Amino acid sequence: xxxxxxxxxxxxxxxxxxxxxxxxxxxxxxxxxxxxxxxxxxxxxxxxxxxxxxxxxxxxxxxxxxxxxxxxxxxxxxxxxxxxxxxxxxxxxxxxxxxxxxxxxxxxxxxxxxxxxxxxxxxxxxxxxxxxxxxxxxxxxxxxxxxxxxxxxxxxxxxxxxxxxxxxxxxxxxxxxxxxxxxxxxxxxxxxxxxxxxxxxxxxxxxxxxxxxxxxxxxxxxxxxxxxxxxxxxxxxxxxxxxxxxxxxxxxxxxxx
Length: 257
Hints:
With 257 residues, this protein is α/β, with parallel strands linked by helices. Helices cover 43% and strands 17% of the residues.
């Protein structure tokens, strides 16, 4: 198993890509700290892992609060002896008209998508350095971080900042044996695809433009489990020389822009 003996903290692990990554990592032998906002979702993911013979602890928290990162690291150190892997997955995404938007409407995207990742990266890196055994940090970004998408400037800018954080931390933490990378999914089948009760991937416009006309060359959104496999490689001991890179997992979407 590729992660035997490792401990991973995964934010936003109650559902979607975070849950898929937590289950995959546990299946590969990692002890997982399941961190997410909703206690019920945390309990469900922990139950799935433990029910399959894996090891997991759960913690309900808001990544936008600086102290949350310390709480998660304290739990990992207390129960599993430290932290080897961080997956910064927690995110919020919501439509917002740029001309009508206010700072109060922008702030959640920046606080969760950027600052939350920064807080967790800092606390986990401090723990990794204390224990002197290196580590892996994987930031979940998005193709929105480098493509111009409408009505989501706050989300796009936060993800673009996250990509730069990945590059900067890769340089700063390399002397400590910590590799820092990102994964940028394209359209993915998660709750974020549902807006006002409608799955945008099922609308006639999406099906016509992205699927039938193959704006996505592979002609479909991705599943969280597919993206989790990319996260696994970057977080695993098999990755020994990739750092500062954001791996795009989008079915070819970005090459058609």
